[in-house]
Structures are given as C-alpha cells and as structure tokens.
Amino acid sequence: MTNYKLTNDWRTGQPIGVCKDGVLGIPFDPDNTDYQAYLKWLEEGNTPEPADEHE
Amino acid sequence: MGKTATLANIGSVADSSLGFRNRIINGAMVIDQRNAGASVTASGSEVYPVDRWVVAAFNATGGGATLTGQQSSTAPTGFNKSIAVTVNGTDTSLGTNDLYEVTQRIEGNNTADLGWGASGAANISLSFWVRSSVTGTYSVGVENSNGTRAYVVTYTISAANTWEYKTFSIPGDTTGTWGTSTGIGIQLRWCLATGTDRVAGAANAWSGGNYIAISSTANPIMGTSGATFYITGVQLEKGATATSFDYRPYGTELGLCQRYYYKQPATAYQSALLDGGSSDYPSIYVTHPVEMRTTPSTTFESFAGFYYNSGSGQASFTPSGGTTGYAGNARVGYSRIAAISNGPGATQVQRSGQWTAQLSFSAEL
After folding, report:
1. Of the candidates B260, B251, B225, B196, the residue with the CA atom closest to the CA atom of residue B53
2. Prediction pTM value
3. A47, B131, B276, B295: which could join B349 in a potential S-S bond, CB 3.0 to 4.6 Å?
4. Mean pLDDT of each 10-residue bin along chain B, 365 residues long
5. Which chain A residues are within 8 Å of B295, Cβ to Cβ?
6. Which CATH code for domain B15-257?
C-alpha cells in the first residue's frame, strides 16, 4: 500500500515536498507527474504522514 | 554546379529532410540509464525498459497478466537495440481500464511548431520497425495530453518473429487542445490490448476521445502467454513522407534523455552538509547535467559515508538509516534526507563535507 510522508524545509520548517514509500522524494510542483499522482491519492481520501520534527 | 545552384537545391529539400527531424527521443532504444539492460515488469503500473519509453500493464478486471520490458540486442539491420516486451499470463477478458501498451510521451516544446489545434496544422509521418511472435493486426494511437483527441492507425504483422518496417502519414489535427510547453504535446501509444473504453469507431480519422485501437486491434497479443513484441527505429517527423531514421550522436541522445531522467554514477562524491540537531539531516547539492523538464523527483539509489573535517583532521561517518528527501529546482537543487541515526552533526553542529552517494532524478511526462 502506497505511503506518503510530508517533508519540511529544514531551514524554514515549511512543507516543501512529500516522500513516497520512503524512497521517492517528490517536490510540490504541479508539472511533476509524481506530484500529480500524489494529488490523485489525496482525492481518494488518503492522508499523508506528518513530517519529522527537526530539532 | 556552382554554389548558387547548390544552395538552391538545398532549399528545395523538404523541411523534414534536414537534421534533428525525429521528435522521438531514444527512438533507437540505445539509452537505458535505469536498468542497464535488465528487465522490468509492469504489473498494474508503468515501467521504463529504456529511457523515455513506457511499458504499461493495467489489469483492472482480473486475469493476472503482466508485461516484462527490456532493452534487447535483437534488432533489424541498421540498428543494434530494441525494446523487447514479453507477455506473462493472458488477458482475454478486457474491461474498462484494462490497458497494455508501449508509449512515448513527447514534450509540447518539441511539437509546438506543428501548429496542431488550428488551421494549417502540419502533417506528420510515423515510422518504426516492429516484430512480434503473434501475427495479426495491431494499432497505434496518436493522442493529445488529456485524451480528448486521437487518431488510430493500424498495421499488420505478416510473419511471426520477423522484423517489418511500417510507415504512416497522419494529417495534422486542426481542432482540439495540444500542449506546446513543458507538458505533453503528443503521445504515441502502441496498443497490446485495451478495454472497449479506448476503442475508436474507425481508423485513419481524428476523433474526440482517448483511443489507441479499433475493435479488430483491441487485443492482438495478450491472449498468448510468452508472446513477444519488439520495436525500434521509431521516428515521428514533420511532413507527409517518412524519411530514413535520424541517427543522433550517443552523447546527444543521452543529453536529450537526461532532461527527463538521469542517474548519477555509482559512488559519486556529493558536496554536502550535515546539519545539527538531535538527529542529522544531510543535504546534498546537485547541478543537473541539463535543465530538466520540471522540478524532478529524487531517489537515493545508494548512500554511504560522509567525509568531513572534525577539527583535528579528516573523519568519516557512516549512517545506519535514512530515507529519501526532496529535490530542488530544475537546474540546481538540493536533496535532503530525512533524519538518520545520530552522527557528528547531532550536537547542534553543522558540518560540511562530502557524501558518497548515488541519486537519480525523474521529471518524466
């Protein structure tokens, strides 16, 4: 089952991407086809895991 | 013949006869950065057996069939590589969303000059070498990005396991919406099987839909487990007449592929940071070999030691974990790995150094 986890910018703490299955780093770019697949996954009612806290 | 006459003769050559005619990238199937010749299997998914080429198998209504794709040295005279597609299992009960195909999606920037979607749309020619273990009638769909315009052409495999050369002249589409920038311009889809949802009423005509077959070509090969389908020498060019294959230098073809995907050499040294915190967050800075189509996704293919100056000389650190992070913009970016086990940066110290790592970047259409 596909898993997505948000990724924060380590400098700002703001979400900048999402990691798929712990393998694929996906940017929030509407032209990126992996991001398009992520949006479709969200539309199906799924929720990503929160990003790691950076201390 | 004087210089004036020579130039006049060049001027009379059709536009499509000059260099960089082929809008297909890696049409001779020579570049395979991902797999280095190894096979990949599409099972409810798309895979890339060679650069820029997709093999897809979606088996929405059961049956369990998959497709294996692989760069092959089986090729017609004049070529040395092809894609070999092998059918695993069978699917003879095709429903909506069942789909088995070989595809290349062409960026709109590379087809914008065709002027499709308006009067004056240019004609194109499609040519390729094909070979199959199953004789019969097959088809290719020419589509826009959102599947609202399609033109299906059919071809016959006359003899099993024999290379055959096919050419088609396709009129430009004067209606519909055709991408002209970094999205899909035209997609070419070789049908290996499809449900009725992608079957057009007739071949050789533009229609408003997502079509890659007609009824007689909806399942040419997926009824035979172990069947093989090879293709190479694919060319799509402007003009109504297909010309000989437009060979490009290997390095040129590789650079064209790298706009959509590239993999770094194994054990490449990456300039990097290890920023401090209760855990370490390594960042690797990357300059892409060519400007990628859009911000790419990143995969850490391998990730080994971090080498840095500890203040008392060279030191190294080998992580015990870590997952893929984030890729930067289309030209220069950084890739950040999620927290790994505590290392030398974990005491609120930011260290610079270099990782030995291998990353791949994908900005495929």
Report:
1. B260
2. 0.91
3. B276
4. 47 55 98 97 97 95 88 98 97 93 98 98 98 98 97 98 98 98 98 97 97 98 98 98 96 97 85 70 80 90 80 78 60 63 63 84 95
5. 27, 29, 31-32
6. 2.60.120.260
